[in-house]
Amino acid sequence: MTKATNSRRTFLKTASAATAAIVASPAARSAPAPAGPPKRRLHVACIGMRYQGTVIALKAQEYGEIVAICDVDRHVREQARASFGSTPKIYEDYKKMLADGDFDVVTIGTPDHWHTKMLIDSCRAGKDVYCEKPLTLTVDEGKLIRQVVNETKRVVQVGSWQRSDHQFRLAVELVRQGRIGKLERVEVVLGKNDVGGPFDLASPPPYLNWDLWQGQTADVPFQYERSHYNFRWWYAYSGGGMTDWGAHHLDIAQWAIGDNPVGIKGEAVFQNEKNGYDVARDFHVTYDYPNDVTMTVSDTGRNGILFIGSDGRVFVNRGTLAGKPVDDLQRNPLPREQFTLYAHDNVERPPRTGKLDAIINHMGNFFDCIESREQPISDVESQHRSATTCHLGNISMRLGRALHWDGRSETFVNDAEANAWLSREQRSGFEVV
Q: Cα–Cα distance between 303 and 319 in angstroms, integer?
């Protein structure tokens, strides 16, 4: 057991959880005057209707009318339609849905490899977009999204809902306001990737359009373990825990750090099963930041984020906010009425914690910004940078060596081999352009 691991465990055993009074305190409310609800009930179209896609569609339904749903799995789209009181039109191909186009907003709940193309096509069709995390499959996709969103002036909210969870936001605020002294180290634990294989090859089921599901990725024989939830354990479609949990926890960590990494060293042991999952079996990544902060990301330990400063520590995960700086808020609250982590929030919305509740505020912030045309809390720039940090860790692990990153040019320093990993070959007819 390493010294860092031992100190982490000692801290977690002695830290007390945040009280309900702190979590619900009016002193922890956020930023300026509310934009107010949209003046008319917007029409919403939803792409990708498996579990999370339906979750965000149901949350969007509180602010707009679901008029169309799209999924390449007939069973999924028909079951999803039955979830709504209205009778939305159903589509297999999102391009046909966009061509019909009688709606204002698009939600995207597909596997990762479809996010960028669907988001860009929706923005170019004049729609505002709520897209699930991680924002991208590659670093270069994020650069293109930034360009298109700037050109089209659309509002895009990424589903990194932990930014709308009161406990995570309070943890970041404590760090940013110096309640742990100078931030020195961040320890992130994501959990293990699934392992498995070899899996049987099969004919695609008649209710699934396997060609459309694959999109920009290489056309390969169908396996049940490639589709739906399990897509995240294949590098072709995702990035394992580094882009799944990482898109949440690394985003919060980097929100507190306030900068982008300059050095990355990833270590991993990979699965070598033919026709099996190919993400890392075991992994650990160390990131160095220009403000003398080090962040470690591991697959082993208690899931969550530990902020370590010169004068204290704060631990946060889904359900826990702990540490002496948290306890101290009872006698020494933050010295103002509202958070200032971002500019455009609705202070009338009550603080919420936990996935299903926090998404209420996250979706509400999106619809507020549709009305005001301001940047939402999980805007494209911040989420491109957070996804980039996840991708850099995976690239370093797969290359098996340390890398140096220039955040300004968004390239590796003097490293043509690593820079070749910033994009991927795309299947003809599904290119992201």
A: 11
Residue 416 is encoded by which pair of tokens? 């043509």
Residue 285 Cα distances to 279, 369, 391, 400, angstroms? 14, 35, 11, 11
Inter-residue long-range contacts of 420-423, CB under 8 Å, 24+ positions, other chains counted: 421/395, 422/138, 422/139, 422/140, 423/138, 423/139, 423/140, 423/141
| Cα separation values, 57 from 122, 195, 247, 423, Å | 16, 31, 20, 30
- CA pair distance 344, 31, nearest whole angstrom: 7
Token representation of residue 113: 């490899």
Hey, what domains does the chain have and what are their CATH numbers? 42-162 (3.40.50.720)
pLDDT in tens, 230-265: 999 999 999 999 999 999 999 999 999 999 999 999
Is residue 333 classed exposed, middle or buried when 0-12, 13-18 and 19+ CB atoms within 10 A define those classes?
A: middle
On the question of a cis peptide bond just before residue 351, with omega within 30 degrees of 0, the verdict is: no
Q: Characterize 274-290 residue by residue with b for buried, 16 or more Cβ atoms within 10 angstroms of its Cβ, and e for exposed.
A: eebbbbbbebbbbbbbe
pTM: 0.91
pLDDT per residue over 149-161, tens digit each? Answer: 999 999 999 999 9
Measured distance CA(235)–CA(226) in Å, rounded: 11
Per the structure block, which two tokens stand in for 30? Answer: 């956020």
312 phi and psi, to 5 degrees?
165, 180
Please enumerate in sequence order all residues whose Cβ is within 8 A of that of 357, keeping only pairs 6 or more positions apart, or say none. none
